[in-house]
Amino acid sequence: MTSPILNVENLKVAFNVGDDRWRQIVHGISFNVREKETVAIVGESGSGKSVSAMALMRLLPEQSTRVSGSVRLADKELLTLHEEQMRRVRGDDIAMIFQEPMTSLNPVFTVGFQLVEAIRLHRDISRADARMEAKKLLEKVRISDADTRLDDYPDAFSGGMRQRVMIAMALACNPKVLIADEPTTALDVTIQAEILDLIRTLQDEERLAVLFITHDMGVVAQIADRTLVMYEGNIVEQGPTERLFRSAEHPYTRALLAAVPRLGESAGHTRPMRFPVVDIETGKVDSPGESPDTVDDGRTVLEVVDLTTRYPITSGVFNRVILNVHAVEKISFTLKAGETLALVGESGCGKSTTGRSILRLTQPTSGSVIVNGNDIVSLGPKQLREARRDMQMVFQDPFASLNPRHTLGDAIKEPLYAHGFKKGASDRVADLLTRVGLTPDMSRRYPHELSGGQRQRVCIARALALEPKLIVADEPVAALDASIKAKVVNLMLDLQASMQLAYLFISHDMAVVERISHRVAVMYLGEIVEIGPRSAVFGNPQHPYTKKLLSAVPEADPSTRSKKRSLSTSTELKSPFRSVDYRPPARTYRTVSKGHQVQEWGEEWNKEFYCM
Prior knowledge:
- The chain has 612 residues and is α/β, with parallel strands linked by helices.
- It has a domain at 29-63 and 72-258: P-loop containing nucleotide triphosphate hydrolases (Rossmann fold), CATH 3.40.50.
- Mean pLDDT is 87; it is low at 564-571 and 607-612.
């Protein structure tokens, strides 16, 4: 066995919390990484995994942090190097990819300029030669038409493409070690699978040692040779990934694994499945099974008919419309009381625009949206305000949804005050906080004093304040850790059972969708290509795009790692931009079984997306 390239011993990190008081965040962790090996550090938010990576790279501010222990890269002790020496190590010997590429890429410079700058910073070559190297790097990370894309700005790339650019930048100077900090968390399952395959391929080609930081155990199962589990700044368990998944010993590791949704777990069940509840102290798992039957077949809450939303693109002095973005194109569906319909698809397919169009947060171009007998599209401002009492929205980012200067109580009271319900508002807030699993005294706190899961519960409480019939939930658990995600989903199912809520659940997480939904609609380029009962869509997918989405979901089972993924070579959706005179073709749907319909597709789908 080769000697470790990166060797970490007794690493400790402490932060200054004021008045010369220091709080220990990382409590003496030790591990190593070898050539061509992938070591994953897993744990929930706040466990210390990203702080440990930042400490390795010497990226923490020296004035407010204390880092001790030993970090050896080959024969170099990184913690004692001068800053100038450490700057040469970063990029030359060790490189890092961050979770959000748009915070790492400068939006005012082209991708080529930034790649060339990174190359010339570490290598003594001309700008022309550096550009040639940059082109080769983009080709290495499978970005087509690299010579042209060098002159594009970051906003011209999709999320997956931007992450590929960050990987290219990290590889610019042939580092020995690559640290990847949550590099796929914000990506769709298809793009995530492609990025993971890319990292594995580059690892073989470049003989990289990879330190992969994530909270997604499905990703760990597919990429890691060894896994370290962190909890409250300590490594509580480590070992070969297959052994860890097969026979985890620490209760926290078992809790993480139990909270991971797996495709196929809901097979044979007609109703949504609650997530298992795990006691982190003991590792005991409580599997509550199916959610109660909540669907009221006699009461339709939402009826969408031929909903179309387009955004005009203008140009010139007179703002002449030159193109239209076909965000949502003639979609139709119904939603009953107590039912959950999930809208799934990749970023840019029109899911969120559909949700916003239904609530008229975005103005539809045509079609009708009937909520409790009212056509939302044709209502005037006053009538729309009244109608919105029956429909509310929960957004993906709870921190961005709450005013940081308002207490939680004020945030929940806001919709009550807006509709004239001031009397008894404080009692209503206390009741809502209790209903979502928080305590009434938390109404005096501010958003920054809560965890991500608690903030999302507050957003749900606010959405329930006016007792709506319909809730549009736009990626409500995408940013949450697995165990917090499970608790929030269970909460939503409990509230649905007690209040007969209808959910339009928007997500790209197919494993969560399989648990929470009654029916599923798959969207591609603004159109529904397949819709039906959850068991039919997941158990008997018909459309090539549905098969593509399902094939890309990472399985939380290391033994499936060698299974070849049937992914398309296409990395981005086709463009939704159309000429002004474009008329979309008429679509026909074939009935597969009761309630299960699939859009007929042509030869172009067989060539590009067929995944058998």
